[in-house]
C-alpha cells in the first residue's frame, strides 16, 4: 500500500538548506497496523505528511495505493486524501461551531453525498464509536476522549482504506488514551490500515510493527 524508496526531504530557510528526511526506504502493506516512532524533531511528522499527500519529497520515490505520488496532479492528490485517507490529530481539529454530527458529515459534503445519506452515515459512525447520545453536542460540550472519537468517526466518513493518526493520545489521560488505541485496534481488525505517529513507546506497542525514526533516518523497521 505504501512504499518509500530513497526518500529525502529538505526545506529552504533563507539561504540555508535544512534536511529533515534522509534517504528513507520502507514498505507498509495493506491491513497492517504500524507505528512510526521517534523523538521530537526526528522527522516522523514530515513522514506522515508525505504519506498523507500533504507534502512531497525533495528526492526519491513514493508509491501509494499502487500509484506514484510524483505522477499525480494536484486534483488527484486531493481526491486521494478525501476518499482513501482518514486523518486523526492530537488536538482533534474539530470545528467549534458545528455539532458532532455536522463535523462527521463534513468530508461527505466535499465528496458530494446527499444530505440524507450524510446524516445516515455520520449517525452510524458516531454510534459505532459510542457517541449516539452526543450527536447534537458541540465540541466544547465534549470530553477529550469524546472529541477524539468524533475525530475518528470523521476520519472514517468516506470509508478510507488508510487511517493516519498523529500523536492521537497526546492530549488525553492514560485511561482515555488506552480506549482510543483499543478503537484503532478494532478498526485494524476490520481491515483498515492504521499508521500511528508517536513519541510514546507505550502507544507504539499497540501496533504490530514499529518503524523507528531518528535524525531523519529510519533506524529500525
UniProtKB/TrEMBL annotation:
Record bears the keyword Nucleotide-binding: yes
Listed GO CC annotations: membrane protein complex; plasma membrane
Pfam families recorded: ABC_tran
InterPro entries: AAA+_ATPase, ABC_transporter-like_ATP-bd, ABC_transporter-like_CS, ABC_transpr_LolD-like, MacB-like_ATP-bd, P-loop_NTPase
Domain ABC transporter: 2-221
GO molecular function, one term: ATP hydrolysis activity
Keywords: ATP-binding, Nucleotide-binding, Transport
Descriptive protein name: ABC transporter ATP-binding protein
Source species: Alicyclobacillus mengziensis
Lineage summary: Bacteria, Bacillati, Bacillota, Bacilli, Bacillales
Amino acid at each position: 500500500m505504501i512504499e518509500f524508496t530513497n526518500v529525502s526531504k529538505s526545506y529552504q530557510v533563507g539561504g540555508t538548506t535544512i534536511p529533515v528526511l534522509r534517504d528513507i526506504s520502507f514498505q507498509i502493506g495493506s491491513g497492517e497496523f504500524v507505528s512510526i516512532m521517534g523523538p521530537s524533531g526526528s522527522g516522523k511528522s514530515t513522514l506522515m505528511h508525505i504519506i498523507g499527500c500533504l507534502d512531497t519529497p525533495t528526492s526519491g520515490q513514493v508509491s501509494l495505493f499502487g500509484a506514484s505520488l510524483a505522477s499525480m496532479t494536484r486534483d488527484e492528490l486531493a481526491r486521494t486524501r478525501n476518499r482513501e485517507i482518514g486523518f486523526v490529530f492530537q488536538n482533534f481539529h474539530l470545528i467549534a461551531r458545528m455539532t458532532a454530527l455536522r463535523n462527521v458529515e463534513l468530508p461527505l459534503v466535499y465528496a458530494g453525498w446527499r444530505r440524507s445519506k450524510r446524516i445516515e452515515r455520520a449517525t452510524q459512525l458516531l454510534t459505532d464509536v459510542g457517541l449516539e447520545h452526543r450527536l447534537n453536542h458541540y465540541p466544547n460540550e465534549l470530553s477529550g476522549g469524546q472529541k477524539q472519537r468524533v475525530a475518528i468517526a470523521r476520519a472514517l466518513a468516506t470509508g478510507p482504506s488508510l487511517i493516519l493518526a498523529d500523536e492521537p493520545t497526546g492530549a488525553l489521560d492514560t485511561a482515555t488514551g488506552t480506549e482510543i488505541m483499543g478503537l484503532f485496534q478494532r478498526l485494524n481488525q476490520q481491515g483498515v490500515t492504521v499508521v500511528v505517529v508517536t513519541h510514546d513507546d507505550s502507544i507504539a506497542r499497540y501496533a504490530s510493527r514499529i518503524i523507528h525514526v531518528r535524525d531523519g533516518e529510519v533506524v529500525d523497521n
